[in-house]
Amino acid sequence: MSHPLFEKHRATLDGALSAIATRGYWSAYNEMPSPKVYGETATEDGKRAFQSHLGKKFELGQAGETGWHGGEQSPYGIDLGVQYPVSDVEALITAANKAMGPWQAIGAEGRTGVCIEMLDRLNKNSFEIAHAVMMTTGQGWMMAFQAGGPHAQDRGLESVAYAWREQSFVPQEALWEKPQGKNPPLVMKKHYQIVGRGVGVVVGCGTFPTWNTYPGLFAALATGNAVIVKPHSNAILPAAITVRYMRTVLSESGLDPNLVSLCVAPAREATKQLVTHPSVKSIDFTGSNVFGQWLIDHCRQAQVYAELAGVNNIVIDSTDAYKAMMRNLAFTLSLYSGQMCTTSQAIFVPAGGIDTDEGHKSFDDVCHDLAKAIEGFLSKPEVAHAVLGAVQSADTLKRVAEAESGVFGRVVLRSQKLDNPEFPKAIVRTPVLLACDAADEKAYMEERFGPISFVVKVADTAAAIALSERVTSTHGALTVGVYSKKQDVIDAMTAATWRSKVALSINLTGGVFVNQSAAFSDYHGTGGNPAANASYADSAFVANRFRVVQRRYHV
Amino acid sequence: MSHPLFEKHRATLDGALSAIATRGYWSAYNEMPSPKVYGETATEDGKRAFQSHLGKKFELGQAGETGWHGGEQSPYGIDLGVQYPVSDVEALITAANKAMGPWQAIGAEGRTGVCIEMLDRLNKNSFEIAHAVMMTTGQGWMMAFQAGGPHAQDRGLESVAYAWREQSFVPQEALWEKPQGKNPPLVMKKHYQIVGRGVGVVVGCGTFPTWNTYPGLFAALATGNAVIVKPHSNAILPAAITVRYMRTVLSESGLDPNLVSLCVAPAREATKQLVTHPSVKSIDFTGSNVFGQWLIDHCRQAQVYAELAGVNNIVIDSTDAYKAMMRNLAFTLSLYSGQMCTTSQAIFVPAGGIDTDEGHKSFDDVCHDLAKAIEGFLSKPEVAHAVLGAVQSADTLKRVAEAESGVFGRVVLRSQKLDNPEFPKAIVRTPVLLACDAADEKAYMEERFGPISFVVKVADTAAAIALSERVTSTHGALTVGVYSKKQDVIDAMTAATWRSKVALSINLTGGVFVNQSAAFSDYHGTGGNPAANASYADSAFVANRFRVVQRRYHV
Predict the structure, then answer these.
(1) Inter-residue contact A554 to A328 (CB < 8 Å)
(2) Spatial contact of B157 and B12, defined as CB atoms under 8 Å apart
(3) Quick one: which of A252, B45, B69, B148 has the most CB atoms within 10 Å?
(4) What tens digit of pLDDT does each residue of A220-277 get?
(5) Do strands B65-69 and B546-554 pair parallel, antiparallel, or not at all (unpaired)?
(6) Burial code of A378-404, b = ≥16 C-beta within 10 A, e = fewer?
(7) Facing A174 at nearest CB: one of B24, B104, B192
(8) Looking at chain A, which residue has its C-alpha nearest residue B506?
(9) B interface mutation test: which of A549, A553, A554 has the most B CBs within 10 A?
(10) What is the C-alpha separation between A16 and A338, in angstroms, rounded?
């Protein structure tokens, strides 16, 4: 007898299963923040729900609550003032361990149904979550809605679909009947129980607190584990809202809400206590190399899935759509002020320039035209603010200032400080573009997170491809791109990406950008270069999160 | 267009795929060493093929050969005298890396077909391999044939089936067509390339040089990686024969034979150089905790799949088939002189004794009757030699002597030294059985590899189940068993094994033994307790051995 929530969401699951098998376009959650989709009052309801959190205590009713903590600073300069419960780490883990028994007992169908019900609930509250994402991360509204809401939910569902597929391959029981020649066969009944490996911790980042959290959160949960979400200290609200809705669904389903909890840790020691706890068996992390490597080195009791820094890069060899290429690049470098793990940082251009549909362009032409394209694209303030959003962290501002000082290379385009009329205290910066030589490796061969990119002069296209491969293999990348009219160049770049194991975008000149990764179609990260040791979402992302425990007896 | 070997072996693959989905009884390779199955001359041909290696140089034609090395000592006391090529580690790796390009290019179908052709070739030469296994490990003939030949081949095929299933889920290409309201859709063509993570190293053990090697070997190979086999210093021949047949199949298929190579390393430094090499991305290991933990700690560039030591255990609560239980246990403790990673070491018996179909039996009765059962089972020399085989290592002999000294507990049954008329120099020992108290944890709570087992006195059944769970969780186990007439005891033991993540055998009294693990049905290891961090073979065993690299462009 199937779990009622499994039956309720069977069509959604089937759609997701078909999508991960074909990886064409598919989406379960509508990306348009439209009243026709989300209801006539959804926009206002969501905004009010968000505002109702401000200046208040965010009640979760978790185990071992010892006090309250907040302190998020909005990049838009508004006052947030939300306080979150601080729980004793040991109490959270004890409660999580306790909640796992019934979660195991309802089986993969039950878990899958409950997880999709949770995603459905999150989807219905996308406006509330979008405001929380926007105001904590500095994303523009449309990105906050899409990436923070439906796209993140799609990534979560993608994980659930992979988790279901792998778990559904494990038969619940088998009759093993081994022939014995003329004698009667040996017959045994066997049972196979899927058991989660243990508590999962998901460590969120400050820029994409839902999109980068949901894959690991739902992968760990769907495979039978409890999950403790440890949000970034400046992006707690989207995580807290997420956890609260998930706990509500658990309670409604007669399950222990402590299966999913939020760990707000004012002191670094509490975080370390959490991630190194013997009961914690998986950690999903998005963030800096320093903390990520610390987790990998110190949390040996757990499987660590880490998305770290990288140096995303693009090789420009030639193009038959020069203007469109520049527009496409300008958008990529501007979107959310380059505060994406997929934003291109290094653009490799041959010293002799490139062939285009507008004639030959020198290296300096390319630098100049890219700067102009960015300026042009951001010339209308309403476009600029919608695209750029606000700068999430003071460190990013420092990096912009450092880049503008010229220490890393010639400044081709200065960053502009813009005033946002709607949010007078918002910190808004346009991209800074630098030019340097391939030999200046210290300048461009390290992630400089934020709106900072380099046009790098390389000897020729072959050298550019080799450099792209080396940068990706040694420093990591989530995305690379190539522009070329020549098939042999595209083939050489393709082969380079097979060796350096990075996703390649070829000749993007339209409405798709190298920094975009679509759920159910694009693998985000490959797990094969230093930028990430795992991909969202594939079999490898889920298969190692559960164990099969068998028992057998004669019949 | 399919690869011809994929077409040739499609039926075998389909059988294996169906078997891993249902996990009932299935086998691709016949376990009976019968002329009717393997051909009238197979027995003699295999023996001659084995003998033709003795005292000779075993030519492999590998990269970077610098000299020769041998020195295997047969537990049966015969002279082996085979010399194997020693290759420069860097040369082996360079050649392996080179061979991976074409191996990637033939795709998952081609790799799957070639791997099954290899298994088919190994199967046809099962007698040769069986003699090599028997004479290097000390296994009895029937076990050497079955576990060393068809059962190992079945485990290899099981890995290939899992690897194929996971790879076949990755579509080669997709058309991504995203609606844009009234505007034309965004359309992209995407390609997904499966890329092996890098060179795999498989470190063999001295007791099961094929059964414990084939799963990792074929899992790594089928998913697009080159493999270097590093055999145990005393069980090189079975690995060398295996590698030679695999290289032959590669050459016949127009592929580079250096995709699979043998690394015979007289100096420990060469092994360390091999396993820590940056090109090595996976290591499959079976053996001691010391070296296994060293690999996990030092080979951080690689995914390490490790099967280590454990303390397999059995809880006896009650039985309605006392004699059959004793016979079953006697066989388990005797088989291959307990030199199996699945042999039971600790048997937990309540201090108050047990209820049986022959009346109540005290703790001492159980000790005494188990000793009698072992003696009785091994009373006929031809049975004893067939079952016991010979002792593989001097360390095992030392452990037997230490156990007999009484330092670990009361000696219930002394080990006997038997003379094997066929092999006068063979070292043969019957099991030693000790009795001790649950409090004597230092005695029984550490793996004592070989024919050494403990009957451990515990307060009651509940304490026995709790002790079994604790031993398994802290020291690891591949197998546990329970004997009980009471469903609540079996349920409690079942729940304990879910927590400690270990396979449970219930009331084995017939022709199946707790130390047996059948391919395609039994998961060998769960990967959830210290005895092994992975299971043969499941999705988790293969899914993380390859990466998906995508490219996309507008159409």
Answers:
(1) no
(2) yes
(3) B148
(4) 999 999 999 999 999 999 999 999 999 999 999 999 999 999 999 888 999 999 999 9
(5) unpaired
(6) beeeeebbebbbbbbbeebbebbeebb
(7) B24
(8) A553
(9) A549
(10) 30
